Amino acid sequence: MNHPPVALSLVVMLFAATCSATSTEKITASESKIPASEAKNHMGQTATVCGAVVSARYADSAKGKPTFLNLDKPYPNAIFTAVIWGEDRSKFGQPETELKDKRICVTGKIEEHRGTPEITLRDRSQLKVE
After folding, report:
1. Domain 33-129 CATH assignment equals 2.40.50.140
2. How far is the CA of 115 from the CAs of 43, 63, 77, in angstroms?
3. Mind listing the pLDDT tens digit for each residue in 95-125?
């Protein structure tokens, strides 16, 4: 009988398990959506956050000319904000009017700004209207 060495069998099994786990993690990370209310529990992570745009503002006279999209609770009680800086604004049209009252999902790294979780949108591919 010709059996492959035990070490080779272990290497093949570990490789298969690693590939399987890696592809599962990628699918989970890209497909899982979290509500805006849970974003605070995912600071520092890359995720897709969903909610209704209940308040939106283009601060054209502020430094960096940011556009703020607040999901599920309006400013000043926002629980999550998507931010588009002026240098990237042309990729999004007029989001403060076009997305108001719509349900959206944004993908990116969740960071904290003054106690509120936020994702900076740099590309249109980070935003989906549901």
Report:
1. yes
2. 11, 20, 11
3. 999 999 999 999 999 999 999 999 999 999 9
